[in-house]
């Protein structure tokens, strides 16, 4: 019993949360759900509490007036019965991840809202399973440094990054997860050949629901169409990011920070079947790939168990049912967000935080019917052009850049709508 790892699941009510719960259900002898968090979806949270009886639940939405009082009362009754303490308040997430009882933090909150809790987990030396790519995109160098200085462990559960991680030799997996060993390797970013004989990384992308379409044909697409992802069941924001290829742009930046790469060392490949989750190419011409059914339970289990293998309840890959695997180059004219992300990474400083904030504002405006799909990239481009913020060497500076970029992007949305 005491050997079980205690998991704090941030964003328990979301898509990553749901998949993580299944992996925990499969491994009750190894993991116990210590804490859960949700923003608004109190009914889902109540269901999780009644099944898992965690010690703590955080409801992070502080807007009590907007909160459904009846649903909150029902949640409280379920929590009392389960022996779960409900915590609320601005710093509840930080408090939670800082607790000594927490061994593993699953960062499954969407967007910049998850940034502070990822940092708090890093400062407390936790093992962090990172789904919240936006936090890393915003704060790359500062977060990597925080992980290193506080002896935290950062394991990617984004399927592509988890695939790349799985294709690395053990020594490099250790170096990537704990950051420390990367410090002693030659400057990978400056060299043509990456560490340990790796020549480049192939980052795969499904292409989303609009793959093959011209830019002009996308002017009238709706949020519902954008959310219809061909292979993955995901939250609304990441689904729209997949449709615009901004998800791949964010993942390009994520891969640069996690694996100490430059964008030119990463080959983005459209692979519509989402069976190969990414690949690592070595100097002898070998290419190692990680394959699996498109099911987030696999990368989550891989990171939760690492360096062991554990069961996952994931869908199995039926090789005989595949109708071939296809690959094509991304269309950067129809989908400029991927290019914008690479440029923001190269620009450095606060540019990726500006890109991310502008994207979050633009995606929400698209969902709300204020702007069209093609305006998303226009808002981001204009934000990057007009929002001049260079410094991003502290968490405070990043938060400031995020806030300023949001104001700027909201103004642009008003102009476009
Ligand atoms: P989702 O919308 O399904 O769930 C988001 C979760 O975040 C919910 O639990 C919600 O309550 C919480 N949340 C939302 N706003 C919040 C706020 N302001 N404060 C605190 N909590 C808040 O999203 P998802 O698809 O599970 O994605 C979560 C993260 O994982 C994203 O960063 C996404 O890019 C990443 N990711 C998701 C998938 C996937 O398959 N869903 C795959 C790879 C990476
Ligand atoms: Mg991904």
Automatic annotation (TrEMBL):
Enzyme class of the recorded protein, top EC level: oxidoreductase
Reported cofactor(s): Mg(2+); Mn(2+)
Domain (1-deoxy-D-xylulose 5-phosphate reductoisomerase N-terminal): residue spans on this chain: 7-140
Pfam family name, one: DXP_redisom_C
Pathway(s) the chain acts in: Isoprenoid biosynthesis; isopentenyl diphosphate biosynthesis via DXP pathway; isopentenyl diphosphate from 1-deoxy-D-xylulose 5-phosphate: step 1/6
Residues of the DXP reductoisomerase C-terminal domain: 291-406
Enzyme nomenclature, EC number: 1.1.1.267
Binding, 1-deoxy-D-xylulose 5-phosphate: 133, 159-160, 206, 229, 242, 247-248, 251
Domain 1-deoxy-D-xylulose 5-phosphate reductoisomerase C-terminal, first and last residues per copy: 154-259
Positions of Mn(2+) binding: 158, 160, 251
Alphabetized UniProt keyword annotations: Isoprene biosynthesis, Magnesium, Manganese, Metal-binding, NADP, Oxidoreductase
Chain positions recorded as NADPH binding sites: 14-16, 40-41, 132, 134, 235
Catalytic activity, as annotated: 2-C-methyl-D-erythritol 4-phosphate + NADP(+) = 1-deoxy-D-xylulose 5-phosphate + NADPH + H(+)
Family per similarity comment: Belongs to the DXR family.
NCBIfam families: Dxr, PRK12464.1
Function: Catalyzes the NADPH-dependent rearrangement and reduction of 1-deoxy-D-xylulose-5-phosphate (DXP) to 2-C-methyl-D-erythritol 4-phosphate (MEP).
Protein name per the record: 1-deoxy-D-xylulose 5-phosphate reductoisomerase
């Amino acid at each position: 019993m005491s050997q079980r790892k205690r998991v704090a699941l941030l964003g328990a009510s979301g898509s990553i949360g749901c998949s993580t719960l299944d992996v925990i259900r499969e491994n009750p002898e190894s993991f116990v759900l210590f804490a859960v968090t949700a923003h608004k979806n109190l009914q889902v949270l109540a269901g999780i509490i009644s099944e898992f009886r965690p010690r703590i639940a955080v409801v992070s939405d502080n807007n009590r007036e907007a909160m459904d009082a009846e649903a909150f009362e029902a949640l409280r009754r379920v929590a009392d019965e389960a022996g779960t303490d409900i915590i609320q308040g601005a710093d509840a997430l930080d408090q939670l991840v800082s607790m000594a009882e927490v061994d593993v933090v699953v960062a499954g909150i969407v967007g910049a809202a998850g940034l502070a809790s990822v940092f708090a987990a890093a400062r407390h030396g936790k093992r962090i399973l990172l789904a919240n790519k936006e936090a890393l995109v915003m704060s790359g160098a500062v977060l990597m440094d925080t992980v290193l200085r506080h002896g935290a462990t950062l394991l990617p559960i984004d399927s592509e990054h988890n695939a790349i991680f799985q294709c690395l030799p053990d020594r490099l997996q250790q170096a990537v997860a704990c950051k420390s060993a990367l410090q002693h390797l030659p400057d990978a970013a400056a060299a043509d050949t990456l560490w340990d004989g790796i020549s480049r990384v192939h980052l795969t992308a499904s292409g989303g629901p609009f793959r093959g379409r011209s830019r002009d044909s996308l002017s009238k697409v709706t949020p519902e169409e954008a959310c219809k992802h061909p292979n993955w069941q995901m939250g609304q924001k990441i689904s729209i990011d997949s449709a615009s290829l901004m998800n791949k742009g964010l993942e390009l930046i994520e891969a640069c920070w996690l694996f100490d790469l430059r964008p030119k060392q990463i080959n983005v490949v459209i692979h519509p079947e989402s069976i190969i989750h990414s690949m690592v190419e070595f100097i002898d011409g070998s290419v190692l790939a990680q394959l699996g059914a498109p099911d987030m339970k696999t990368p989550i289990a891989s990171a939760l168990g690492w360096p062991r293998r554990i069961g996952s309840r994931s869908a199995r890959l039926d090789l005989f049912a595949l109708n071939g695997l296809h690959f094509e180059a991304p269309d950067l004219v129809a989908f400029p967000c991927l290019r914008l992300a690479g440029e923001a990474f190269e620009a450095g400083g606060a540019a990726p935080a500006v890109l991310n904030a502008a994207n979050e504002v633009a995606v929400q405006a698209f969902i709300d019917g204020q702007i069209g799909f093609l305006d998303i990239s226009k808002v981001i481009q204009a934000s990057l052009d007009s929002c001049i913020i260079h410094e991003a060497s502290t968490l405070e500076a990043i938060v400031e850049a995020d806030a300023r970029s949001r104001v700027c992007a909201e103004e642009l949305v008003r102009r476009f709508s």
